[in-house]
Amino acid sequence: MPMPRPLFYFFAMFSLTTASGCAFFPESQPKQAADAISISKQPLTVATHTFEPSAPPPEMPPLGESEQAECASDFVSNASVSARSLKLDATHATMTITRVQMTLQLRINIWVPQGVTQHVMDHEDGHRQISERYYENAETIARQVATSYLARQISVSGSDLSGEIDKTLQQLSSQVTAEYSRKVSPEAVQLRFDHLTDHARNDLSAAEAVAQALSAKP
Predict the structure, then answer these.
(1) Least confident residue range of 17-21, 106-110, 149-153
(2) 56 is in which domain, residue-wise?
(3) Model confidence over 185-194: pLDDT tens digits?
(4) For the residues of 98-129, what is the DSSP string, one character each?
(5) For labeling, which of 70, 95, 97, 114 is most exposed (least CB within 10 Å)?
(6) Rounded distance, CA 81 to CA 149, Å?
(7) For the chain, what is the domain count?
(8) Which helix or strand (DSSP H or E) is residue 162 part of?
């Protein structure tokens, strides 16, 4: 009976969220511990755009019913999952996740109407501050997510084992990016901020509302 053959695979996937990829070998542990997780956090970008309310540009997100302006925060993640596969027979294999790489970025676009008041501008800047505060913890969150996938073992089967392994890695990459996106999302705090300020319609300062929204218990 032929010996099982270890194979190596990786899969990379991009995910975007808007407001935004067997056997265990003890001798390999030291090397895996050193480079099994790689997180690259890119500098955030912020751009402010002015629009004509009667003719907003097509690339601008639609405004809500009570909104005059918009702060769109895109938390971008690119996950690359690597695995070692132990082929058991012609149609069965066991995969072990050996490496997870993630690249993170935050892209903020603020859209304000022509003739915007300072009060509304401060409100949108408050949304920016909240997103930036959450991005401060993005690397820690991504590392926690990636760690939970390391050494995970998955059984695969099918007449096309290579195709099944690729498909499984694609699913895992989707799960990594989706879990990161869910955990890094500031949506609940952004909603509290809008509630406190009544979408910039009351007199509460944006600075005070940001502080209150961030300090409130989930």
Answers:
(1) 17-21
(2) 6-185
(3) 999 999 999 9
(4) EEEEEEEEEEEEEEEETT--HHHHHHHHHHHH
(5) 114
(6) 9
(7) 1
(8) helix 161-184
Cβ–Cβ under 8 Å, residues 141 and 180: yes
Q: What is the pTM of this model?
A: 0.82
Enter the tokens of residue 34. 């050193």
Q: Would you say 213 and 192 are in contact if contact means Cβ atoms under 8 Å apart?
A: yes
Residue 151 lies in a domain: yes
Question: Is 62 inside any structural domain?
Answer: yes
Residue from 107, 108, 86 nearest 97 by CA: 86
Helices (H), 15-77: 29-35
Report d(CA 103, CA 100) in Å as an integer. 10
**Is residue 60 domain-resident?**
yes
Q: Helices 206-215 and 187-197 sit at what angle, rounded to 10 degrees?
A: 140
The 3-state DSSP composition of the chain as helix, strand, coil percent (nearest 5) reads 40, 35, 30
User: Per-residue pLDDT tens for 90-113?
Assistant: 999 999 999 999 999 999 999 999
In a domain, 13, yes or no: yes
- CA–CA distance, 81 with 70 (Å, rounded to integer): 35
The reported pLDDT for the residue numbered 45 is 98
**C-alpha to C-alpha distance for 125 and 197, rounded to whole angstroms:** 13
